[in-house]
Amino acid sequence: MRKDVRILLVGEPKVGKTSLIMSLVSEEFPDDVPLRAEEITIPADVTPERVPTHIVDYSEAEQSDEQLYQEISKANVICIVYSVNNKKSIEKVTSHWIPLINDRTDKDSRVPLILVGNKSDLVEHSSMETILPIMNQYSDIETCVECSAKNLKNISELFYYAQKAVLHPTGPLYCPEEKEMKPSCIKSLTRIFKVSDLDNDGILNDKELNFFQRTCFNMPLAPQALEDVKNVVRKNMTDGVEDNGLTLKGFLFLHTLFIQRGRHETTWTVLRRFGYDDDLELHQEYLFPLLKIPADCTTELNHNAYLFLQSVFDKHDKDRDCALSPEEVKDLFKVFPYMPWGPDVNNTVCTNDQGWITYQGYLSQWTLTTYLDVQRCLEYLGYLGYSIICEQESQAAAITVTRNKRIDLQKKQTQRSVFRCNILGARGSGKTSFLQAFLGRNLLKQRKIREDHKSFYSINTTYVYGQEKYLLLHEVMPDFDFLSEEDLACDVVCLVYDVNNPRSFEYCAKVYKQYFMDSKTPCMMIASKSDLHEARQHYSLTPLDFCRKNKLHPPQPWTCNTVDAPNKDLYTKLTTMAMYPCSYTRFWLPLFLLLLHVFTSC
């Protein structure tokens, strides 16, 4: 909503523009009226909408055309004043003032107009019969107010309507020619309906209606008031109420009724509560609340955020199979302006036998987004209405910013739940297979993955000493000559080579020596495709000797060419190394991993 309102009064000389302003300020009709009133500002605390209001007078005798044009360009709303007892001043509304204003304003952002019939104390009849055809002709005209500066009749109402025309404009909501809401308004209210429909049954029941009412207007509706609302809809729409609840059609009808009856501030209150600006776009401040992330800290979802996401999953998993079908995913994201997940998501997280994202996969994808791009996560939560449903100030309340990793190292413990493992290796070494095996897919299942749906990430849960943790695997593209900070920034490194390719290990050895030999990042060497013949590597040292020389654990044999799902022990070891980097020393790692193996086997 705007932070202030600028009202401009124009009209023919002697129609009472200045008198209207002075009567409002002094609450009495002035004895001496100057040619033009100075600009006045009404403080926010004395206006109905609690917004500072600037009122500007125009005088043909004192101001030039250029000054008039400047004021028109600065005005938020323009009051065209005429005298109800002067036909010429009424004619000038259409012959001069409206065309002049339209010529000086952008067609895409026309300023709202209010027709003001002053000096109603001098006549016994109303001018509305003459004015109504004008209002029907020009959609920019918000309303017409007949008033008297002398008798102080409707003076406060005039300026209230002017404020209202700016703060709660009809233009973005309603098309008077078609007598229906505009598509953008329908789209916004449809999203609001779906967010408020907590059980996703297409109906707002009494509990949901009261939550909506309390959210938007800070008070619930009495049971009789709820019935009265539904009865109004029933009388006008056969399918507006079903199972004693309000349907989307009924919800949209109610807002159409509000607007048609001049209560568009009701609809604007709802729209703004759900994050919309005057152009019916979601505010940047709503989608991207301020969140400070210090260097070397990561971002995770907190417990309340997971509970919210669980409720979103539950309300869209209509067949209760603990997975989201493509139709259910599409329905979930109807409140988004675009589809946020592409087909690569199915190769990033766990899916069922039909290729549908499981509950665990769904939470994993949200965890991945939060870790890699927290701003995108905030945006997504905004579309889902997290701050509204969870009654939080913003989506930032869903995020935990972890402490600096350096402090974790000093204290030799961490409270983090998400750990990143970068996978490096030469082309064809088995990195992609290693990622997919983490999702429970053997070689046979991996062959069905389309190349254009490939993902360079995979994320799943592991259990370390009984604690559930997320391990995020990132396949780094092989480019030995240049590894970026992102390629190197992680909690643990996995160096993968193909035992059947004699030139595969050399890449891992060179990468380790150049980038990780002197770093504190734990490293593990993976001997992939261990079901194949082990070729002699064309390197000065064997992989085993290289690991001994650099005090690394011996290469870990691994294959995904199995009948069942690949074993997850290696992923648990990687997570443990990431969690306890201080326990990882090149001297003690073999013993440490041996104890871990014994513990997990018990």
Unreliable stretches, pLDDT < 50, 5 or more residues?
Answer: 585-592
The percent range for helix content is 40-55%
Structural class: alpha/beta
Q: State the separation between the terminal residues, measured CA to CA.
A: 62 Å
Mean pLDDT level:
91
Rg (CA only): 34 Å
Percent of sequence in beta strands: 15-25%
Q: How many β-strand runs?
A: 21
Oligomer: single chain
Strand order of the largest sheet: 2-3-1-4-5-6
Strand count, sense and closure of the main sheet? 6 strands, mixed
User: Please, how many helices?
Assistant: 24
Overall outline:
elongated
Structure, explained:
The chain has 602 residues and is of the alpha/beta class. It has a six-stranded mixed β-sheet, sandwiched between helices. A six-stranded mixed β-sheet has the order 17-18-16-19-20-21, with helices on both faces. Strand 7 (174-175) and strand 8 (180-181) form a beta hairpin. Helix 9 (248-260) crosses helix 10 and helix 14 crosses helix 15 (374-384). The chain is elongated and about 110 Å long. It starts with a strand and ends with a helix.
In short:
By secondary structure, the protein is α/β, with parallel strands linked by helices.
